[in-house]
Specification:
By secondary structure, the chain is mainly β. The chain has three helices and 30 strands.
């Protein structure tokens, strides 16, 4: 391309023992232009080439040759200068009919120059209707070269503006370091200002002086100045085939048969293409459908790409040759990047599912709520230098099987892993004929963590008069202990109670690891 950059490189060979060889090079390479640039380059090369130029050239108006020929014949008849031709004339009513036949031969021989020419003419007219056949053959030989040429013209005309002509011209010319041969056939019709032509050309050319070599074949069709056609050209280095047309198609003709390949203007239409490798700057999907080897749709204009076709090991693999990145990517600050090596960088990530990672590193992580099956942290910096591990036992069920001795009413297991356990318990109670209740927290080792006494409030009587008073209250205990294990909540009354009831039992343990 006009602005392409040429790159140079050298090769240096180093042995397994570390011996460095001399630099080999330089060699150079130019990056391939884009597809758009290649189209512009190739278009310019094609338009300036022999084939394109020959297809652009308009077909000469050969009907004028026939008109001039007939005029010459009429002038000869009028002057009675027939040159041995046979003339017949007849006049019937207002009509006039004339015929003209001539066969002329010219031979001339001079020093180092020979010319032989033969002209045969057949012509006739009836009023404004005219026709003629002219065959001309020429042979010239001299010191410069040899020319052999044959020209045949067939012409017919009705009235002043309707004519048809056929011309065949064959030429062979040779000279020192030069050889030329051509065969040109032209068919043409005119009606008023309308003119239509077809021309076929076969031509070979060898010129050692100008270092030219070429073989050309083309067919041109022209109607009222609009020219087009197709052809082949070989210059000894490459063979070129081209069509200068507005519409080009391939396929069988028929009412129900489609044309699988059509070029219309600047667009190419392909009905069904089998392509081994496709390189494209732009792809307009429209109604694109892509299938795997089994015919299953991977994605289409109406179907999203399924995650199963991206995952490694499934039918479809997403291949990354180097790096995928956004157009605004700036390392460490903006955009995103995914590399073939397996690293990825994102500004923000929102995951509404599972995240699986063998290694997770973050300079700053902000998590509102996390549920981890197993977490291993080398160094953890936590607010107030503590990790809280809450364990709770709570129930609203009633308990009635207690006495003056302690009875267990709940338990929890806490492991602070070297920290301190904060323990709290509470229960609502109701007794008849007893106003004092004790509650305690006990470790599985038997150690008492905390023990308190609560005094009830008289709320009524279960017997007649002032007999069987009923007391209600809440028992609570609070304590700490730096030990893992099971912690129990026990309760007892001052005397053997009757009509006893314990509800809303709660035991909470908070382990603080440091």
């Amino acid at each position: 391309a006009e602005n392409s950059i040429q790159y140079f490189y050298w090769i240096e060979i180093v042995s397994v023992n570390g011996t460095v060889g001399e630099l080999i090079g330089p060699a150079s390479a130019i990056a391939r232009p884009t597809i758009e640039e290649m189209i512009e380059l190739l278009t310019g090369k094609i338009d300036s080439g022999v084939l394109a130029q020959s297809l652009k050239t308009e077909v000469d108006n050969i009907t004028t040759v026939g008109a001039n020929l007939l005029q010459e014949i009429q002038d000869r008849i009028a002057a009675d200068n027939i040159l041995g031709a046979s003339v017949q004339s007849a006049e019937t009513l207002a009509n006039q009919a004339l015929t003209y036949v001539a066969d002329e031969t010219v031979q001339r021989t001079q020093a180092h120059d020979i010319l032989v020419q033969q002209v045969g003419v057949i012509a006739g007219l009836v009023n404004d209707n005219q026709g003629a056949i002219l065959n001309e053959q020429t042979l010239r030989i001299n010191q410069d070269g040899v020319l052999a040429q044959s020209i045949s013209n067939t012409y017919a005309q009705v009235g002043a503006d309707i004519a048809a002509a056929v011309q065949a011209e064959t030429t062979a010319r040779t000279s020192a370091g030069y050889a030329f041969a051509s065969d040109v056939a032209t068919v043409q019709s005119t009606l008023g200002d309308d003119i239509a032509s077809v021309q076929t050309t076969l031509q070979t050319n060898i010129n050692t002086v100008e270092d030219n070599l070429g073989a050309l074949y083309h067919v041109k069709v022209q109607a009222n100045g609009l020219a087009g056609g197709f052809g082949l050209y070989n210059d000894g280095t490459e063979v070129e085939a081209g069509f200068d047309v507005d519409r080009f198609w391939l396929g069988r003709t028929g009412v129900t048969l489609r044309k699988p390949f059509i070029v219309q203007g600047n667009e190419v239409f392909i009905d069904n293409a089998v392509i081994n490798q496709l390189t494209a700057d732009k792809i307009d999907t429209r109604n694109l459908t892509i299938k795997d080897a089994n015919g299953v749709i991977i994605f289409s204009a109406t179907q999203a790409l399924g995650h199963a076709y991206i995952a490694k090991g499934n039918v479809f693999d997403l291949a990354v040759s180097g790096q995928i990145k956004s157009d605004n990517y700036v390392a460490g600050s903006a955009g995103f990047s995914i590399t073939k090596a397996g690293s990825a960088e994102f500004r923000n990530v929102t995951v509404r599912g599972d995240v699986e990672a063998s290694s997770l590193k973050a300079n700053t992580a902000m998590i509102n709520t996390a549920h981890l099956n197993s977490l291993s942290v080398t160094t953890a910096k936590i607010n107030n230098n503590a990790v809280t591990i809450p364990v709770t036992y709570t129930t609203a069920a009633s308990f009635t099987g207690w006495s003056t001795g302690y009875v267990e009413i709940g338990n929890i297991y806490v492991n602070p892993e070297g920290g301190t356990v904060i323990l709290m318990c509470s229960a609502n109670w109701q007794l008849t004929n007893a106003a004092w209740v004790w509650i305690r927290i006990r470790h599985s080792s038997g150690a008492i963590v905390a023990e308190t006494r609560s005094v009830g409030v008289l709320t009524g009587y279960s017997g007649g008069g002032d007999s069987n008073p009923i007391y209600e209250g809440t028992a609570m205990a609070l304590g700490t202990r730096a030990e893992a294990g099971t912690y129990y909540m026990d309760i007892r009354a001052a005397t053997t109670p009757s009509g006893s009831l314990v509800t809303n039992r709660t035991l909470v343990g908070i382990g603080a690891k440091k």
